[in-house]
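Field reference: sequence -> structure
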Amino acid sequence: MVRNAFLLLATVWVVGVSLTGCQPSNAAEPEPLAANVSDLIGAWQITSVDLPELPASKFESQALFEKYQESRLNFRNTTRGKIKMDMVFGEKGVLVVTNMESIGKGTYYLEDGRLFTKLDDGSLEGYAISSFEKKKMVLQMDGETIGSSHIDITFEKTK
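Structure field:
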């Protein structure tokens, strides 16, 4: 479900971007934080999802602006604490994120401070770990995926 949630986030953002005419930023993305792999092992759940706030002037109409604002709030309220994941060591020491009840059949791998999953079409989807503490982590969707801003997804460790 995490992959589905991220895809929903991207869809909401892409719709907002396409309606507002925002263009992807050429600004450099922050370097992903290197986390100690052993600190990532355990159970995590989403505590907040921060979609960027856009001014009404970026939208073609007030109705589109209000729809985007409603989507932002609905997504925050419906995901809080409901998306969970477990991180465990896989073969050859590769970190694998897996929890069949919450994530579905997706498996995420940690490489160079980013979580990657292979999509059905064979492409890779990645999320940078933009900040990390022992019990809190923020994943940031890649800028190319979502346009000129980014979406921060905060997880807290539950075990």
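Note: Residues 14 and 84 are 24 Å apart (CA to CA).
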